[in-house]
Specification:
This protein is mainly alpha-helical. The protein has five helices and two strands. The chain has two domains: 16-80, no CATH class; 87-128. The chain has a two-stranded antiparallel sheet. β1 and β2 (43-46) form a beta hairpin. α3 (89-105) runs antiparallel to α4 (112-122). The protein starts with 15 loop residues before the first helix and ends with a helix.
């Protein structure tokens, strides 16, 4: 995938041929990527959606099993679909533009209450929360 870095962490139990085969199943060929690790062994792994619904369960299970085997306590994988309930990149960018306009272009002579209301209307604080 052109959007992934040249090198990234994968569980050692996933063979290279599995990674190549699985990559075609993910939207944009975006393989799961290890984003963060906690000293207790917990990890945050980002994974794109799988295109083929029929293959989704098999591929998902194979990857989750590999992640579980790499955990020092063999803890089960907890999955969360972050696409649901989160703003899109376009919404975040629009909120940032509104925030910049408010902070740069708006005179601060207005009442604080109106400025705070305008800040809330950008939705920036809601998105970064």
């Amino acid at each position: 995938s052109p959007s992934l870095p040249e090198y990234f962490v994968v569980p050692s139990s996933l063979a290279d041929q599995d990674l190549k085969l699985f990559s075609y199943s993910f939207i944009g060929r975006r393989m799961p990527s290890w984003s963060w690790n906690h000293p207790n062994g917990s990890a945050l792994v980002r994974m794109a959606n799988i295109k083929d619904v029929l293959q989704q369960r098999r591929i998902d299970q194979r990857i989750c099993n590999a992640i579980t085997r790499s955990h020092p306590h063999r803890s089960d994988v907890y999955k969360s679909d972050l696409d649901k309930g989160l703003p899109s990149i376009q919404e975040i960018q629009a909120a940032h533009v509104k925030l910049k306009q408010l902070c740069v272009n708006e005179p601060f002579e207005e009442t604080e209450e109106k400025w705070l209301s305008s800040l809330e209307n950008t939705r920036w604080l809601e998105y970064i929360r």
